Amino acid sequence: MKIIGNIPGAHAAKVQLVEIDGKEYILKTEAAEEVASEKFFYKILQENKLNSLSVVEGDFLSPNQLATQYVKDSPTLAKFQKEENFKNWGREIGRMHSINFPACLIMNAPAVPKEISWAEFIGERIQFALRKETDLVANLPKKAHVLLSELLKVELQKYSLLHSDLHINNALIIGNTIFLFDKYGTILSGDPLFDLALMGINFPNHLYVNTDNPKRQNDTELLSTIKEGYGEDFISRDRKRFDSYVLLRGLIRYPSRYEPHIKLIVKKILEIY
Questions:
Q1: What CATH code is carried by the domain that includes residue 41?
Q2: Per-residue pLDDT tens for 41-90?
Q3: Any idea what DSSP says for residue 234?
Q4: Is 205 helix (H, G, I), strand (E, B) or coil?
């Protein structure tokens, strides 16, 4: 394996362009359980005949390294924001969420899925959010804690395959086909609304905020297109639960220069309830 160079822009992992047997691949180095989680994700996509990047296996890779197919110039949805692409993105997310498991699974070292309760996973995420030393957490009113605690009572009949970081930079476009990639975290299966809550954070205009930011002027239309592709209005399915997941994920992600409206989103959710 030959290292060609580093790829900038990664937030939680070291990412490099490498050459293996004369072909170029993306090499990601991060925690071993994160690598195992992403390998599991691609494996399940392939087994269910969904679009998936190819993964390289070999003794030359350590447990904390993942080598995947390289697509020249990284043609992501962020770069090609056409209506058809957003609809296809929604459709691919819907197909992913149609893959179900009988229990909530997380990736446990050494690369073995572990069954836990959904409440246990959400409880850990709530504690993580509340331990953050931010002005947003420091000034949370009591009703925010009530909304978060209600997520511990969510009961699921099925547990969908999760990506956990659905945004437009994590959707590759190859031809007219969307490939979900760069899965985040060790969670493998759970409530699809936990995944979809990021739509509320990344397309917030007229849903939670009213902004004249030119990048946010098409949020309503884009969300409608995504929902059409997904095959369901996932926001209205259980609006309070959706909003509560948005609250949780907003607290975890704040502060973020990529998601500047989180504080206003949280304020609006707490005004609603």
A1: 3.30.200.20
A2: 999 999 999 999 999 999 999 999 999 999 998 899 999 999 999 999 99
A3: H
A4: strand
